[in-house]
Input
Amino acid sequence: MTNNPKWLPALILLDDFGGNWSNYVEAVYAVFQCDFIKTQPRFRNFWVRCRREPLEQGKEAGFWHCISGGPNETERKPEPRRMERIGWVRAVIEHDNTPAVDVWQVMRGTDLRSCIWFNEEFLVVLAWRVRKPSGFKYWQLVTAYDTPEENRKRQLRKARDEWRSKNS
Output
């Protein structure tokens, strides 16, 4: 990745913490906590909230989903590339109207999701929520991850282009 925009935060590297995993996780969590717990971004005029439950090691489910991956939800493993980019999540959401960011929507079952893709390199996924009985509407942060694999990029391009052709 070269020539990233000024609005994109620097990566948070494990080496910056002398390889101390525990300190690294806490530093990454501090960024997430600031960006999604203490304050929240807005996307298309609605708040973006993270899933809080279940808490694991005192940290919200939304945090763990953004920094880990794997096919089995109960056996996800932390991924350094996700962790390094935790500061990108809010930045990409807040810069959805810039040329480097594509936005489209997909249905996953009955779930309306917005995909926010920075430079075909980093994807943020939000799900539309309406609280009952209050009717409070918001976006819920589902996950965020880098997209270096060409096969995944092809899938995302196809979904984006199909949405664009139906909504232009």
